[in-house]
Write a structure and sequence with these properties.
alpha+beta, globular, Phosphatidylinositol 3-kinase Catalytic Subunit, Chain A, Domain 5, single chain
């Protein structure tokens, strides 16, 4: 079974990546930065509806600063959702600012509420990490999901990805009423294939969510990554395959029980085929992104050497051995789609 042995150190956003972000509408000037939110005067533990500690703390700010902080956060929400149209802010308010000490990016989670109907949404303010940004952009370009995020200086703004965390899904929905085992097994196979091809690591059940989508006859599922810190960093091939994490054992067993080898192969080919189509549609952004990544040290020479050798054996392709960095390895993985 697989695990990440050490916490990855964040990577600074380089001029090459910043140029890409600005060119493609991700780089922007924000009214408030991550360090400003750390100036809270106190905090209280946040508990869920069952009284369990969530490991998040709700931040309290000096009264003299609260109004301006809330207004700036609402403007960021408008930038994230409507390109900066502040007309949507009239009925919105910041209900809560939560802080987590345990994530790699030590994020702030902002809860936005509609004062007319109590509907709410979230977004996150984090320390910008180049690996995570590459992961977000690759998710946007190569997966069936679109991702909204913005970068300003050393601050990263991310939208909230809705879904049931993979570990909670096992407790709440697995083998319960209306559970569609075959469709979930199919989705896990596709998710596993997608992560491996694009080299997204650490996809255990706490780092992805499952969206439950009613169809006209059955229930459909989509698995979405929510943690992108381990994009193209580790040197072990199996780190990029969700099937090898012990937390995903139930999903792996479901796939092997419900699907034949022929069906698994079919779904892998389907996913590879749609990724080819996405690659063709995003040809120039991908070219520019890989060019920026090739100039960034998002991993260590040891990890690069180890991964390219393991993938050369796995794919029986000596081209991997020519790779000089993680961008070269990822590019060769993507070219494998056309074989």
């Amino acid at each position: 079974m697989q695990q990440i042995s050490k916490r990855k150190q964040p990577v600074k956003v380089s001029p090459h990546l910043r140029h890409y972000l600005q060119t493609h509408g991700r780089g922007i000037n924000l009214p408030i930065q991550y360090p400003h939110l750390k100036n809270f005067s106190d905090s209280i533990a946040l508990y869920d509806k069952k009284g369990k500690d969530t490991l998040w703390e709700t931040c309290l700010y000096p009264q003299s600063d609260t109004e301006q902080i809330h207004y700036d956060l609402l403007k960021i929400y408008a930038l994230l959702k409507t390109g900066g149209d502040v007309n949507i802010l009239e009925h919105l308010a910041v209900e809560r600012i939560d802080y987590c000490l345990y994530g790699n990016s030590m994020p702030f989670r902002i809860r936005i509420i509609n004062k007319l109907n109590d509907n709410f949404d979230y977004f996150y303010v984090k320390n910008a990490d180049a690996s995570r940004i590459y992961g977000l952009e690759l998710e946007h370009l190569l997966s069936p999901n679109r991702i909204s995020y913005l970068v300003s200086g050393d601050t990263l703004i991310e939208e909230h990805i809705v879904g049931v965390p993979g570990d909670d899904f096992l407790k709440l929905y697995f083998n319960k009423e209306n559970f569609n085992a075959i469709r979930l097994a199919k989705e896990f196979v596709k998710f596993n294939e997608r992560c491996f091809i694009r080299l997204l690591g650490d996809m255990h059940s706490s780092n992805f969510v499952i969206q439950v989508i009613p169809d006209f006859e059955e229930i459909h599922y989509r698995i979405r990554a929510i943690d992108f810190d381990q994009q193209s960093h580790e040197g072990r091939k199996n780190v990029y395959l969700p099937q090898f994490y012990k937390q995903n054992k139930d999903y792996v067993e479901l796939a092997t029980q419900c699907l034949s080898k022929e069906s698994i192969y079919q779904y892998q080919r389907e996913e590879r085929s749609v990724m080819v189509a996405r690659l063709k549609a995003a040809r120039w952004p991908m070219f520019n992104l890989l060019n920026a990544m090739s100039k960034d040290a998002i991993s260590t020479p040891h990890n690069v050497e180890k991964l390219k050798n393991e993938l050369a054996i796995h794919y029986k392709n000596q081209r991997f051995l020519k790779a000089k960095n993680m961008a070269d390895i990822l590019k060769t993985c993507l070219l494998q789609l056309f074989n």
